[in-house]
Design a protein that fits this description.
The complex is a heterotrimer of chains A (119), B (392) and C (304). Chain B is of the alpha+beta class and 392 residues long. Chain B has helices at 46-49, 55-63, 70-85, 91-119, 123-144, 164-190, 192-198, 206-212, 216-220, 228-231, 252-275, 326-338, 346-352, 357-360, 377-391, and strands spanning 6-10, 22-28, 31-38, 153-154, 157-158, 293-301, 304-312, 318-324. In chain B, a hairpin with a 2-residue loop joins strand 4 (153-154) and strand 5. Chain C has 13 helices and no strands. The chains are: A mainly alpha (119), B alpha+beta (392), C mainly alpha (304). The B-C interface holds B 6-9, 14-16, 30, 117-124, 127-128, 131, 191, 193-194, 196-197, 342-347 and C 35-38, 126-127, 130, 196-197, 199-200, 203-208, 268-277.
Chain lengths: 119, 392, 304
């Protein structure tokens, strides 16, 4: 795959950025600008802000993220394999089968150990 | 491991609240570990204001305590004042009071169904129930000329009669609403995704319900058989008895089912009432000055028990009127039940009691010295200004 | 040069996609409204919303990184727009292609959600932070099954190039042979767009507007535009893969609108899911179903 095949998307990305920036620029010129400290305060349902909003994430969110990374990698491994799996024939099928199995066992383990229950 | 304390302020300006109130929730991740409530944003000083108006004017002022259950406030007030004056409204008037009160209950429960569905993110049920609510709104409009503040009550009677044309509208409206209510009952007890958000959520046992002093449908959903219409019949309820709807599970699903089954009971009551509407006058004469004395008046509002204390010193103005609305009784249950539930369940839990903030907001001062003190209008006004300034 | 610039800027990519997105957003709103027995907005409402938002003052909240706060909506919209050149927008063949452009397109479509999550995370606002956590958690839930569901047709066609897959799917409707993949892809798209039962990250009655709470004016407008573009892109992709390809403008309009009707139906039928229910749904059923479909395909291919 030649690098030139990325040329159009690079061009489009640049153009899209320019268009979005143009929108920002135009409305910055014509739009009202009357900042005030009350307006810029974070929204806290109409109360005075109560301290910094710093949050420690509960572990469940990380479990979901880890699960996702595992499966995303699995899917990415599928990609090249699926195109040439005819050439790899039975050997490719067996190796990919083992790979899928390991990940599926991981999912089942996580399921059974209660990572998907949020209590 | 120490629990994380992440505070989330909900209200006074928040999409979950249709009226201003403030809840402070502490959450650990998505699970609520603590909740507190602060009320008083919609305090209007009505209890003080009635003391400087005469008995008739107060009727209209008190009717405006609540925008949804306006008629029941006026009824409670009228019944109390009539008791003080030793007057009884004629039977036809009492029956019409019940009729409007029950139509209002339909209106209130359907409105609640829509709001509760919206809180769960089920906007289709919200839109449909509010469409059907229009039926009863139109009936009320045809009967009284108004959609919300009906002004049906007078001291000593009612203002409107039920003629045959309205009778037909009511009956055909009830038929339509009855089929719709059965349909909604199917949804709230059968839709699996909706049940995921209601079944087992906000469990309140009957012991808890008794201890927290909840009233109305909220209590009846927890197996507490308490309904003023049956326990202490007022107006014409002794002649048109109702079946108290009780569910024992005490979760959100039960609160949905109790309110919807109450609607069916209400349709039945209205039909029997219209069948045997007593003939006679619509009102009797009331004295302008009410004899000195004090009384209480209890009625079953759509949200639960509504309590009026009325004191007269013999003049043409009341000496003191104290109102306790059902929302205040039920509010304590919200902060109790919130703990241990997901943040996503909070709007539904709050709506489960059918809160009405402007109804319940009153000013209470606790005197530690034991001396009594009388607040004037001006003092109340200054206090309000200072309090809002301090809040910022 | 001029012709390709026109193609990139005006038609079929660029401006046309924006207009198309606004139109589809309106159709979606109108359909949902009609299904809910409401009247619904008039046809220019989404466009009027945009104009109004762009004319609004943008408030920069205290304590946020101003550059990042302004840049994120731009990146989100640019990413969604960039994905469009690989897709058969308006029934025309994709503007450009190379082997593996499906992967690029799919990841460009995820950029919007990532930007939303980041935008919420940098805001010093409680609701934004919760919304961002939920948005990313939801992304982690649907993304893998969604990818698998789009790889099904690619695998059947034996290529990762969108126009080659379309050449294969034009001859047969994959919705018949891979129904699970179709459903997972459509539901995954609804999750991506944070549509009704999956609108947990911006659940209005709980966390106001989620990650978008602090955004106003231009930033919000760009995010909304990005989402509308993504609606068009996602529907096109699914129609092209599962509904017998997209061969002409008529095909395009018909098939994407049918899908939009389905999406609107699902939106009106269900109650919002809690975030734990979303995770459970995707990892318990979505992932396993998509994997099962994948294994079935594998067996089929080995058999032939």
């Amino acid at each position: 795959m030649a690098l030139e095949s990325f040329a159009p998307i690079t061009a489009l990305l640049v153009i899209s950025f320019l268009v979005a920036l143009l929108i920002l620029f135009i409305s910055r010129i014509f739009g009202p600008q009357r900042p005030s400290s009350r307006k810029a305060a974070p929204y806290e349902s109409g109360m005075k802000p109560i301290g910094p909003a710093v949050r420690r994430l509960p572990v469940q969110f990380y479990l979901v993220a880890v699960l996702f990374i595992l499966f995303d990698i699995e899917v990415i491994f599928f990609l090249p394999w699926a195109v040439i799996f005819r050439e790899l024939a039975v050997y490719g099928l067996i190796t990919m089968g083992i790979f899928t199995l390991i990940l599926t066992v991981g999912l089942i383990y996580e399921w059974k150990s209660g990572a998907l229950e949020w209590e | 491991m120490s629990k994380e304390q992440f505070t989330i302020p909900i209200g006074p300006q928040h999409p979950a609240l249709k009226e201003p109130g403030h809840f402070t929730l502490t959450v650990d991740g998505e699970v609520v570990t603590g909740a507190s409530v602060r009320l008083g944003y919609a305090h209007r000083g009505i209890e003080k204001a009635v003391e400087s108006r005469n008995w008739v004017q107060d009727l209209y002022l008190l009717e405006r305590i609540c925008g949804i259950c306006s008629h029941i406030h006026a009824t409670a007030y009228c019944l109390g004042v009539e008791k003080l004056a030793g007057v009884t409204a004629p039977p036809r008037a009492q029956a019409i009071r019940v009729l409007v009160a029950e139509l209002e209950r339909i209106h209130s429960h359907l409105l609640w169904l829509g709001v509760a569905a919206h809180q769960a993110g089920f906007d289709t049920l919200f839109m449909y129930s509010w469409r059907d609510r229009e039926t009863v709104m139109e009936v009320l409009e045809q009967l009284t000329g108004n959609r919300v503040n009906y002004s049906a009550n007078l001291l000593g009677g009612v203002k409107f009669d039920v003629d045959t044309r309205v009778l037909e509208t009511i009956l055909s409206g009830l038929d339509f609403l009855e089929t719709r209510t059965h349909h909604y009952l199917d949804i709230v007890s059968g839709d699996r995704i909706f049940l995921q958000r209601t079944r087992g959520i906000g469990m309140m046992t009957s012991e808890q319900a008794e201890r927290l002093g909840v009233t109305g449908p909220t209590a009846r959903a927890s197996g507490v058989r308490r309904d003023i219409r049956v326990d202490a019949p007022y107006a014409a309820y002794d002649r048109y008895p109702i079946q108290v709807v009780v569910e024992t599970t005490g979760d959100l699903e039960a609160r949905f089912i109790v309110r919807l089954k109450e609607l069916l009971e209400t349709y039945h009551l209205i039909r029997t009432l219209l069948d045997g509407l007593p003939e006679g006058d619509l009102k009797t004469r009331m004295p302008r000055r009410i004899a000195a004395g004090e009384t209480i008046s209890r009625v079953e509002a759509p949200r639960g028990e509504l309590f009026y204390f009325i004191k007269s010193d013999g003049g043409d103005q009341p000496a003191r009127i104290k109102v306790r609305t059902p929302t205040l009784s039920n509010m304590a249950s919200v902060t109790q039940l919130a703990v241990g539930h997901q943040l996503a369940d909070m709007p539904m839990l709050l709506t489960g009691i059918d809160p009405c903030f402007s109804c319940n907001d009153r000013l209470t001062t606790v005197q530690t010295s034991g001396e009594s003190e009388t607040w004037t209008w001006e003092k109340l006004r200054q206090y309000g200004i200072a309090s809002y300034r301090e809040r910022g | 040069m001029l012709a390709s610039l026109f193609a990139l800027l005006i038609f079929p990519a660029g401006l046309f996609v924006l207009v198309n997105g606004l139109a589809y957003h309106w159709i979606d709103r109108k359909l949902v409204a009609r299904l809910q027995n409401r009247v619904g907005p008039r046809w220019f409402q989404p466009a009027a919303d945009m104009v109004k938002l762009l004319a609004n003052e943008e408030v920069l909240p205290t304590g946020v990184d101003a550059r990042l706060f302004t840049a994120l909506p731009v990146v989100a919209l640019a990413g969604a727009l960039a994905a469009m050149i690989y897709l058969p927008i308006a029934g025309l063949p994709p503007l450009y292609n190379f082997p593996g452009d499906l992967i690029v397109a799919v990841y460009l479509l995820s950029l919007l959600t990532l930007c939303t999550g980041l935008a919420g995370a940098i805001s010093k606002d409680r609701f934004s932070i919760i919304g961002a956590t939920r948005a990313l958690t939801q992304l982690f839930s649907y993304e893998a099954p969604f990818l698998l569901a789009l790889l099904g047709p690619a695998f059947a066609a034996g290529s990762w190039q969108i126009n080659e897959i379309m050449a294969y799917t034009s001859s047969q409707w994959l919705i018949l042979t891979q129904p699970v993949g179709f459903v997972v892809a459509l539901i995954g798209l609804m999750g991506k767009l944070e549509m009704a039962p999956f609108d947990t990250p911006e659940a209005e009655t709980e966390i106001v507007a989620g990650a978008m709470t602090e955004y106003s004016g231009r930033g919000l407008a760009l995010f909304l535009l990005g989402r509308e573009v993504e609606l068009v892109g996602g529907l096109t992709l699914i129609a092209a893969f599962y509904l017998g390809g997209i061969n002409n403008p008529f095909d395009y309009a018909l098939k994407t609108l049918v899908l939009l009707l389905g999406v609107a139906g699902v939106q009106t039928l269900m109650t919002r899911l809690r975030i734990d229910q979303v995770v459970g749904l995707w990892w318990r059923y979505g992932a396993l179903l998509a994997l099962g479909q994948w294994l079935l395909l594998l067996g089929q291919r080995m058999g032939t």
